[in-house]
Amino acid sequence: MLRYFTIFFLFISSSVSNAEVKDKIIKNLKETENIDFEFEQNINGKIENGNCTIEYPKKIFCKYARSNNKILVSNGKSLVIKTRNSYYRYPLNKTALNLILDKNFLINKIYNLEERIVDNSLINFTIVDGDNEISVFFDKQTYDLTGWQNTDIYQNFNITFLSSIRKNRVLSKNLFKIPIQN
Q: Which of 30, 56, 66, 156 is the most buried (most CB within 10 A)?
């Protein structure tokens, strides 16, 4: 009987701990208006890096390092990827970023998902929504968003890692303005 009680107690302790982790991630997301960070992105083995700023809901500005002036911008409705030689514009709601940049969507999904601990340092949730499957990662110590992986609209496998994260900074109002096509 003592053995069953011990197993039951460990199960309950684990559930409380898991619920506490979810609550801390959700609280952190609710308190976050914006983040800026350095990133490393691996798309089918091609690695790029740079810095980004996200403002919730659904705005992002990324400037890629060592590229041909590549930027990625979303104003909450459209997503533009612009380089010196090209310009691509997509409806944001046709991309996985539409979900990743929506903290209320993330919060609602996290409430109902089981987390997975990765390398004893990351908390992972896998979100399936329509045709999108997105894994989001949070730091186990700070509960900050630290990355995601998904398949993009061209069926490329995309892994994005975040570092040097700063939250709730004063942002320029023009940061998320869609650039014009050359």
A: 56
